[in-house]
Amino acid sequence: METEPAQATTLAEPQARPAYRLRWIGLAVVMGADIMDLLDATIVNVAGPGIRDSLGGSTAHLQWFSAAYTLVLAMFLIAGARLGDIFGRRRMFLGGVAAFTVASALCALAQSPEMLIGARGFQGLTAAMMVPQAFGLIRDMFDERDMGMALAVFGPAMGLSAVLGPILGGILLDADLFGLGWRSVFLVNVPLGVFAFFAGSAVVPRPTAEQAAARKPRLDLIGTLLVTAAMVLLVYPLVQGREEGWPAWTYASMAASLPVLAAFAWYELRTSRAGRDALVEISLFGNRAFTGALVVGLAIFGSMIGLMLVLGVYLQVGLGWTATHAALALIPWSLGSAVGAGLAGAVLGPKYGRLVLHAGLVIGILGVVGIGATVALHDGPVNVWLLLPATGVAGLGFGLLLAPFFDIALAGVADHEIGSASGVLNAVQQLAGALGVALLGTLFFTHVEDNVGGAHGADAVRAVFDDALTLGLVGSGLALAAAWALTFLMPRKARADAGAAH
């Protein structure tokens, strides 16, 4: 699950169109494109088992169906934002929408697990062109008076879309529209993407003369390659290692990610000091509040997205539920998230700041514990009604986190660092999703594969899946507990000019 953090461009610009007359229609188009991204980031968590039944493949393939998208998106998100500065946000947005539509069709046409994983990676690359332009375009269309209202609509809609992805995936999978099965999960993007492209061409504003004449930065290719290599070296062995039996290369790869990341930091520092355009503002990583927020974000979003994968597989493979049945079990989570995000964004976040994050984490942990207790204490398989209270509480907790997190994370960042900081936060959110799928998925699938062969009878097999789910829930709960402690490193309140920062 994913929500989009506040995006900002890397160059400070004046308000482009203070009274752009089509701004609300433009907002709807931008939101529609970002909703496609969020749905695709999470929709496979429910559709994954059905896809594997159709195409074949291993449990590692099942993890890659989700992780390939989020990992590639994370790798190129910051570069995508910089390309928007170089070539224009409108051009990159429309090009990204068109390419994302083509990538979605390629996913639907896949004939093997490997083809689907490759298409998902391409889809993540196209999303990296499209997604970072959203908040810059919103800033171009709205003046300061309407900016807060636009963001108040945008934020909760993005949060709700992230948790609706698995529900929509389940409904489409079981509806089997025109006999397409799981392929409809990706084909639904094609008409949406075509509409978004032509509507965007008509209503998204062109750059002003001042923007067109402004200095364009250069893309830091070496920095992009270094940070990309570090992410791949870390995430690839986490997903593939269990399938390969954890050979020595998996540990060597994970270890190698650290010096590559250090080389990236050194190169960015050298680039900044030389007065050239760095991929990120390296001074950000000397800011304790911001680096603390990055670690908190890794824990929160990795826990959420990894847990959604584990829950989806447990309900469908462990309990034998249909995709729609599993999706129904997640509706309380979605509703709780919507309520929590609405309360935090409109009332609690501006007034209580960081305390809302702490409260959301505590409530989220209680929900995770509640899911585990419901499964452990019930004699026999659970049902939707039994899971409803715990999943609703978990959703409420995560919803309370989503609305204020990014503004608070940016509170200690200098004005000239806002654009870079926003891009880094967004990339870390996507990386967290890939890591969450890798780590919690590995815990879950390792336990199942090590024990299900010795289980005899339906009750024994279900007990194995119950225990595997418990391991995933423990991992998720520990990540949230660590986030609770690390949240004290973050600023107490959001930026007073949060809306402008976006």
Give a verbal description of the structure:
This protein has about 500 residues and is an all-alpha fold. The chain has two domains: about 25-220 and about 275-500, Growth Hormone, Chain: A (Up-down Bundle); about 220-275. The protein is built from 20 helices and no strands. The chain has helices at about 25-40, 45-55, 60-85, 90-110, 115-130, 135-140, 145-175, 185, 190-205, 210-215, 220-245, 250-275, 290-320, 325-330, 330-350, 355-375, 385-410, 420-450, 460-485, 500. The chain is globular. The model is unreliable at about 1-20 and about 495-500 (pLDDT under 50).
Q: What is shown here, in short?
A:
The protein has 502 residues and is an all-alpha fold. 78% of the residues lie in helices and 0% in strands.
Q: Describe the main β-sheet briefly.
A: none
Please tell me how large the radius of gyration is. 22 Å
Mean pLDDT: 81
Total individual domains: 2
Q: What's the CATH H-level superfamily name of the largest domain?
A: MFS general substrate transporter like domains
Number of discrete helical segments: 20
Report how far apart the termini are.
21 Å
Chain-wise SSE layout:
Layout: H1 23-42, H2 44-55, H3 59-87, H4 89-108, H5 113-130, H6 134-141, H7 144-175, H8 184-187, H9 189-203, H10 209-213, H11 221-244, H12 248-273, H13 288-318, H14 323-329, H15 331-352, H16 354-377, H17 384-409, H18 418-451, H19 458-486, H20 498-501
